[in-house]
Amino acid sequence: MNPSPSNPTNVPDPGALDPSTAARAWAQGWAISRHTSAPIERPGCLQILVGKPEQVTRYVFPRLDPEVLRRLISTEAGPGTWLKICAPRDSVSGMLSSDWAVHEPEFLMSVPLAGRADPVIGGIAPGRKASAPWRW
Known about the structure:
By secondary structure, the protein is α+β, with helices and mostly antiparallel strands. 22% of the residues lie in helices and 17% in strands. The protein has helices at 19-33, 66-75, 89-93; strands spanning 40-42, 45-52, 55-61, 81-85. The chain has a four-stranded mixed β-sheet with strand order 1-2-3-4, with helices on one face. Strand 2 and strand 3 (55-61) form a beta hairpin. The radius of gyration is 19 Å and the shape is globular. The two termini are 28 Å apart.
C-alpha cells in the first residue's frame, strides 16, 4: 500500500481487514511464536504442523465452512488435532462428536488502528529507541 492523497499516512482502513486476512496473520504469528513451520494453505483453512504429542496439527478456519470441516474431521483428524474456528461455539459444537473437547471461546487479538501513523526517519520512529535486531 502506498500513500495517496486520500490516505497520506498509509494506515489501512480497519474495516478493510477481512476475516481470512486476520486469521492468516494470526496463524503466521502463532507459528512464528511457537517455532513451527509456516501455515499451509488448505481449502477453507490453514494447517500448522505443530509436531508435539499433545498437539500434532492445528487447523485455523477464518470462517466456518461446514463441508470442509466435516471432510477434515472424518478423514484427517485424530488425537492431537486442534481446531481454531472463527465462528460461534454453538454453530460448531453440534458438528463435532463426543471425541472432541470444546474449550471456552478465545478471541483473535485486535486493536483499533490510529487515524495517523508517526513518521519514520532513518528506520526509527520519533520517540523510539533503536535496539538490536530480533533473533530466534
